[in-house]
Design brief:
Layout: H1 3-32, H2 38-47, E1 51-52, E2 58-65, E3 69-71, E4 77-79, H3 82-87, E5 95-101, E6 106-112, E7 116-126, E8 129-134, E9 137-140, H4 143-148, E10 156-162, E11 171-176
Antiparallel strand pairs: 1-2, 2-3, 2-5, 3-4, 5-6, 7-8, 7-10, 8-9, 10-11
């Protein structure tokens, strides 16, 4: 059997396995209640967004930011550079457009921000992750944001979070030194 046929069969098998895993995760989330599986909410939201071929030199994918990555309509996770997410103050639920150039370059653009609110709380470091404690909740934040704002544990931080949905992630808006 030619190599190209073997590769095509392998790709088809991997796509099928990924689809089965997504379905299994969705069923588990539904059985458990899905209340704590934030990623499944963004996967469902992303599934409603289209995926297009773009020009001959690029592919365009629209998806939903989950706090670290963009979830595409196919359920795949696309890495969003932490410095871009921090600088753009992306929050979970924001809709992004990803252009994948022929040379493999990823170019992100925020196309539909989710409604936001601001909360204030102290910056903490626990379980290997920076978090902000606000409104009796713990929000994860990107390390790139912490270093950009030169925030230190104990500093009060203004955090941007989705206004209408629960989220485990937030975007640092400002750091207020002790």
């Amino acid at each position: 059997m030619p190599l190209s046929n073997k590769l095509a069969i392998l790709k088809e098998m991997l796509d099928s396995a990924e689809s089965s895993l997504r379905s299994a995760r969705q069923i588990i989330a539904e059985l458990v209640g899905g209340g704590t599986d934030f990623k499944s909410n963004y996967t469902k939201q992303a599934a409603e967004i289209r995926m297009s071929g773009g020009s001959d030199e690029s592919q365009i994918v629209e998806g939903v930011f989950d706090g670290q990555n963009m979830i595409g309509p196919d359920g795949k996770s696309y890495p969003v550079p932490a410095n871009y997410a921090s600088k753009s103050k992306l929050v979970p639920g924001d809709v992004l457009k990803l252009t994948i150039k022929e040379d493999g370059t990823f170019i992100y653009k925020q196309i539909s921000p989710v409604e936001r609110k601001r909360v204030i709380g102290p910056l903490v470091y626990e379980d290997g992750q920076y978090k902000v404690l606000a409104n009796s909740k713990s929000y994860k934040v990107l390390l790139a944001s912490v270093t950009y704002y030169k925030a230190e544990v104990g500093d009060n931080v203004t955090l941007i979070v989705p206004a209408l949905e629960e989220s485990e992630w937030g975007a640092i808006d400002n750091a207020l030194p002790k």
